[in-house]
Design a protein that fits this description.
Strand order of the largest sheet: 2-9-8-7-6-3-4-5
Structural class: alpha/beta
Radius of gyration: 21 Å
Oligomer: single chain
Largest sheet: 8 strands, mixed
């Protein structure tokens, strides 16, 4: 028998991945994954970009490339940083990643020794928790209210845990809650990170997917002491299948990530990077983001209206202004895992909320995704789910 490393004891299969496998059945209305709308992928334009790269620069596209990424793509990442308020970023300030999930592995690899603390929102993205656990940290969860992380609780955790290495946050349309931090909370977070000498990992996959209001400045744009590691991705604003994300951080931090990247995979696919850069050269990404945001906004509204119509009044939920998810809260005595099992019998799937907690899981919540189902299926799925909830509350 193989003798596995002790760190493997901390890892388990992602609950979302298991649910996605379960819901591969096309008859199931799935609100489980964080999938973009596949029918909106600009496939023809991608084919054109790929053909152009291969015909004009095929040898370079099929060759090894620099670890920090193809220059033209990093220039496009600078444009994305400007969109979230970072005006002085240069291409050399960007490290290309094989998807932002790779970044969630790199940050603790660089910063965490076993027993160090990571402060996380409660609840938070379970894919991040799974990535962090491999490096044997302790977690210090901080509750969210409608304005973001509660700063008094955050400072209490920073005082209690002197070996806190970084604070992990999704400040825009948070996964799983859909909540967005206020400017006051953003500035307060920066002040506390400075005061207690800790880094911040800002995960921003959804910030540009705003269908109501104005895009908020990123934490990185408010950073006064180079403490924020910004992580962006093309997965939600273009395509998750290409697996391209990026870091923006202080030079000494990027240098460490570059060293880790060399050991992990040498580089992100040259072919994919060059094709993406060509696509961005030839097409209007802003128009594409506007299109998908409008679609997601309509689908969110359909879901919220259906929940108001079909859900019992004891059930509450968030109403986000962007992103892909909303968060449902049941009466405390109702277990969302049990509800999920009954919902599957009705051919509806969602992710129970307990998986999103680093500690002391609250089982009376669940996450719904509205981006990848058409409006008629959203209506029908919420109607079925409402029937399940009414039975559970009897």
């Amino acid at each position: 028998m193989p003798k596995f490393a002790k760190r493997m004891d901390n890892l388990k299969a992602s609950e979302i991945r298991e649910l996605l496998a379960l819901t591969a059945d096309p008859s199931i209305i799935s609100f489980a994954g964080g999938l973009p709308a596949a029918e909106l992928f600009p496939i023809d334009k991608w084919i054109e970009a790929s053909d152009k790269v291969m015909k004009e620069n095929g040898a370079a596209a099929l060759q090894y490339g620099p670890t920090d990424g193809v220059l033209r793509l990093r220039e496009h990442c600078v444009t994305r940083m400007e969109k979230v308020g970072c005006k002085n970023v240069k291409p050399e300030d960007i490290q290309i990643l094989s998807g932002s999930q790779q970044g969630l592995d790199f940050v603790p690899r660089v910063l965490i020794d076993p027993g160090d603390y990571i402060i996380v929102e409660s609840p938070t993205y379970l894919g991040a928790l799974n990535a962090f656990k491999a490096y044997e940290p302790n977690f210090a969860p901080v509750k969210l209210d409608d304005d973001g992380m509660i700063l008094e609780d955050l400072e209490a955790q920073l005082k209690a845990h002197k070996n806190t290495k970084f604070i992990y946050v999704i400040s825009d349309f948070q996964n799983p809650s859909g909540k967005t931090w206020t400017m006051e909370r953003r500035k307060g977070l920066i002040e506390l990170a400075n005061k207690y000498d800790v880094m911040i990992l800002e995960d921003n996959p959804y910030g540009e997917l705003r269908f109501e209001g104005e895009i908020q400045p990123s934490l990185r744009s408010l950073d006064t002491e180079d403490r924020v590691i910004f992580m962006g991705t093309f997965s939600k604003i273009f395509s998750p299948g290409i697996r391209v994300g990026w870091f923006n951080a202080a030079p000494e931090v990027l240098n460490k990530f570059n060293m880790v990247k060399q050991g992990a995979d040498l580089q992100t696919s040259t072919t994919t990077q060059m094709t993406l850069a060509q696509f961005l050269d030839d097409n209007d990404l802003e128009a594409h983001i506007k299109t998908i945001s409008e679609v997601y906004g309509k689908r969110k509204n359909v879901m919220v209206d259906a929940m108001k119509k079909y859900f019992p009044e004891e059930v509450t939920f968030t109403n986000p202004e962007g992103g892909l998810f909303l968060w449902v809260t049941l009466p405390e005595h109702i277990n969302a895992r049990e509800v999920a099992t009954k919902a599957i019998d009705k051919k509806v799937a969602f992710v129970p909320g307990g998986a999103f907690y680093a500690e002391n899981p609250e089982e009376n919540h669940f996450r719904l995704n509205y981006s990848c189902m058409p409006e008629d299926k959203i209506e029908e799925g919420i109607k079925r789910l409402g029937e399940v909830l009414k039975d559970a509350l009897k």
